[in-house]
Amino acid sequence: MNMSSSRKRVFSGIRANARPHIGNYLGAIKGMLELQDKFDCIFAVVDLHTITTPYDTKTLRPMVKDIVLDYLGSGLDPKKCHIIIQSDLRAEHLELAYYLGTIYQVSRLEDLPTYKEKKAQHPDYVNMGLLYYPVLMAADILIYKAPLVPIGQDQEPHMEVAREMARKFNSMFGQTFPEPQSYKTPGQYVPSLFGEGKMSKTNGGTIILTDTLEEIKAILAKAVTDDGKGERFPEAGPAANLVTFVELFQGHDRAQQYRSEYKESGIKYQELKAELAEAIYKELAPIQERRKYFEAHPAEVETILEEGKTYAKTIADETLREVRSKMGL
Ligand code: TYM
Fold it and tell me: The pTM is what?
């Protein structure tokens, strides 16, 4: 087992507001899986971010554990990477977030599209934590000096904030942080099955990693379709979205066949959906098998999290010592 910290560091996280769906899997977890073989990776369940939008205090902890199981089920391998719960390192992440917050413009945070979306979604829950969300996210990444972050397209505004903060800190106090870059997978933007926008935990109707074949079929049955036929294959809309899923789960050739069919005989969506459901389930079945193993071995999971915490804390403490000293504290 080579956990050498001389390798390039990678950090990423998933919130615990709902179970990860296939958008999170394709856009983020698949990137994590690719990188764990080569780099020094720390992957987190970011529960401090979760509480910035309405949540249930009773289900938060079980949800965090569920997501750890989803990570392990997906194939994050504790022999290759470190898995942490953000609040296990709350003092460290929050301390750096505070320092970073002191060098960043409030107006920049207020202008972020992600903040505006959340404000519109939860008009009665516009709290300081929500405004501070990108600051804490930057701290998550910079505390480990991670230059690489496997992450979906929707998080690009936050990644830009993290880069700006690294630059600003470096210019004010001397070279300290790398400017983190996103690591993108082919599934960096998974569309919603039900119309506009991306697949999202808050829109409902998502396929999660433990869904059965029947459940996947039932969700796909409700996915929006069009006539299935036209002069040109559309760039957006129901046909484009469904064929994106085909591309991601069944490959480029099958997707191209559907694109041609659209212009010729027409796509039979019932058949497309049946075939796609099988393909999605085929990818999820081994994840579900592995997940069951870890579900049945909670002590093993606790050990993995303890190890992750100890490893991460050493790095975080070192960064904080450097930051405090450079800031004259
Ligand atoms: P969260 O939980 O909203 O999303 C987790 C990851 O899934 C990606 N994602 C998608 N990718 C493709 N298609 C989609 N439809 C889709 N929906 C979501 C997200 O881009 C993300 O990579 N702010 C982060 C959590 C976070 C974090 C961090 C991430 C906090 N601190 C530090 C990386 C590094 C988030 O949106 O989580």
Answer: 0.96
